[in-house]
Amino acid sequence: MDDAMNALVRSQPSEPAEIFDRWRAGRRASVAALREADPKQPVHWVAAPLKPPALATTRLAEHWAHAALDIAAPLGLDYPDTMRLRHVAWLGHRTLPYAFQVAGEPVADVFCDLTAPDGSSWRLGDPAAASSISGSASAFCRVGAQRLAPSASGLQISGPYGEKALSLLRNYAVT
């Protein structure tokens, strides 16, 4: 995928303003296509077919990870976490069963009680689950983006599958 994208970028050299206009047009087309798509019908994507709501959320997670964590942070630019991070946290939690399955582990329910950027609580999953992850939503999302080690996250885990869930957590499809 990286090689294909690099070849595409190199094949279309342009001035920054033209690239930005092309990006804006592509963004509008993507949003329109996602809005018009049947939300229950999976569409082809890089790693696996995804339903449009999951695809849209995956794209938001990728944008946040690359813009905030890969570009803004190293440049010292302010890119504060907002309540929109809920989508990234939801995606990380929602893909845990898939991550367990791909890792050859038994699928386990994991409850997440995360503290949002505004201090409120985001509760994902069944509170009666035998395993749980709790703490900062920002740290949870960074672990899922593979930008923060679980051991450095400050997240609290409990139950028989809490540690495994945190090690498998991803905000993107795993193969």
From TrEMBL:
The keyword Isomerase applies. Keywords: Isomerase. Residues 10-68 form the Mycothiol-dependent maleylpyruvate isomerase metal-binding domain. GO terms for molecular function: isomerase activity. SUPFAM superfamilies: DinB/YfiT-like putative metalloenzymes (SSF109854). This is Maleylpyruvate isomerase family mycothiol-dependent enzyme.
